[in-house]
Amino acid sequence: MTLAIDAIALTRALIQCPSVTPEDRGAMDVVQAALTSLGFTCHRLPFQSPGRPVTENLYARIGTGAPHLCFAGHTDVVPAGPIEAWRSDPFVATEHEGDLVGRGAVDMKGAIAAFIAAVSQHLHTHGGKPSGSISLLITGDEEGPAVDGTIKVLEWMQARGEVPTFCLVGEPTSESVLGDMIKIGRRGSLTGRLTVRGVEGHVAYPHRAQNPIPGLVSILQRLTAHRFGDANAQFDATNLEVVTVDVGNRATNVIPAEARATFNIRFNPTQTGDGLSQWLRAEVARGMDGHAGQAELTLNVGGEPFLTEPSALSHIVADAIQQVTGRTPVFSTTGGTSDARYISKVCPVAEFGLVGLTMHKTDERVSLADLAQLQAVYAGVLARVFGAAKR
After folding, report:
1. Sheet architecture: strand order including 68-74
2. Please, what is the angle between helix 7-15 and helix 110-125, to 10°?
């Protein structure tokens, strides 16, 4: 008989692993132990790029036939920040007024636990095996650079012929209440790091120095004044946001040697990473015109935009949501990037998970009622995918 997995207990166990990127701290062991108990074949896939620590990843599968449903998620979390600002220790899962509080509760350890619990429920009902295949792709490198996580596991899967029929990503896509939104695409992300170098000197002798700040300000004014105006029915407009400006000068009588800024662009499919990179380099050159110093720009495209048109999977998820919550979800492309940007190149993908209002915040928490309902939705998805429920 298949072992029953309790979603709350598993969420607790995962939260108690302080798996801040790139650390694993036992989180992958917790997932593997649960899946092994259900009969999954598990493959631990550690990857390491030069100069980076090892990233722990896990691919697990039960069944060999079609359809093949893959669930993708991540056990790594963002830093908790000042622990004293939390209601309780962020890595000791604590119940408070019907919520489970802890870092990763909604992003996205709760969803991983809910899916595994739903799988245990499904397997228990169907003799311990699906009428197809269920797999999980779990990475420890989603909140970081994402170079040694999902993208490399997908390469490993493809080399072995492990291509899913479709993939469900458990990111916290619900906006206000569980079930109000499914993600079927995301905007792309580009990060720019700008440094303007001048010559340090005394403020009373500016002719002996080159002040880099006016050039930096000029460039940022040009970038932030630009309006892309490319919103459409499926995507928000491209936007550029300055996220840091730093001179590092504590003296009031010294012209600094350099000034730095970092910005991020979230862009829709009317733009490309290459096209934006060309535009940015031209704008930086124009912004420096007439200003002292030299500008250096480094760019990193974190992901291109993608859209998976509403598919069999997204409609299956919507049907399951409606049955459990009574809500009709919106198909959306809003929000930040996710590893679905890599998965979309391999198979149809949809994203659905918990309410994201507290993700990355102090006192991140998941409603225990939502966790139970998410398990029920995932169980409904499994039943529909494998033909055990009316469509």
Report:
1. 41-44, 57-62, 133-139, 68-74, 166-169, 349-351, 181-183, 330-332
2. 150
Q: Which two tokens stand for residue 67?
A: 């359809």
Looking only at the bridges linking them, the beta strands covering 258-267 and 365-367 are unpaired
User: Residue 26, exposed/middle/buried by CB under 10 A (0-12, 13-18, 19+)?
Assistant: middle
d(CA 261, CA 215): 12
Distance, in Å, from the CA atom of 359 to the CA atom of 173, rounded to the nearest integer, reads 11
Show the domains of the chain with their CATH numbers: 7-186+305-385 (3.40.630.10), 188-303 (3.30.70.360)
Whether residue 153 contacts residue 88, with contact meaning beta carbons closer than 8 Å, is answered with no
| Residue in the block written with tokens 């309780």 | 88
The string of pLDDT tens digits covering residues 327-348 is 999 999 998 889 999 999 999 9
Known active-site residue 142? yes
Catalytic residue among 24, 56, 141, 142: 142
* pTM given for the model: 0.88
Of 24, 76, 141, 364, which one is the catalytic site residue?
76
CA–CA gap between residue 290 and residue 81 (Å, rounded) = 42
- For residues 156-163, average pLDDT: 96
Pair of tokens at residue 100 = 């489970």
Nearest CA among 167, 187, 171, 188 for reference residue 343: 167
